[in-house]
């Protein structure tokens, strides 16, 4: 693991080894998938569902993101997203907007970090 971005992701608490394993240990492919997962618009469906207070859609969108975050080893994002999944899984909505705000802030932080590593 020599790519500076991979080292930085590890420093941020990501489990890059697991993410690489799920990407057949292909660093370039892994980085491409991470960049796609952190793309500016990747949270939009969840934000829209939350704004509409559509609990079912919130669950579906957050659950899909949970899988992406888990497969790529993006633990900080996974951890912030999990309360949204678990609350909406059972039809609840209490605390979801606040949890989403935390996820959005961390997601933006990841966007800024990734932007420092073009390519």
Overall tally of domains: 1
Uncertain segments are none
Order of helices and strands: HHHHHHH
CATH fold node name? Four Helix Bundle (Hemerythrin (Met), subunit A)
The dominant shape is elongated
Count of individual helical segments: 7
Span of the ends, CA to CA: 16 Å
Beta strand %: under 5%
Secondary structure topology:
Layout (H helix, E strand, L loop, with lengths): L3 H8 L4 H7 L4 H11 L6 H8 L3 H18 L2 H15 L6 H20 L4
Helix pairs in contact: 3-5, 4-5, 5-6, 6-7
Task: Give structural notes.
With 119 residues, the protein is mainly alpha-helical. The protein is 73% helix and 0% strand. The protein is built from seven helices and no strands. It has helices at 4-11, 16-22, 27-37, 44-51, 55-72, 75-89, 96-115. Helix 3 runs antiparallel to helix 5 (55-72) and helix 5 (55-72) runs antiparallel to helix 6 (75-89).
Provide a concise account of the structure shown.
73% of the residues lie in helices and 0% in strands.
Give descriptors for this structure:
single chain, 119 residues, mainly alpha, Four Helix Bundle (Hemerythrin (Met), subunit A), 7 helices, 73% helix, 0% strand, elongated
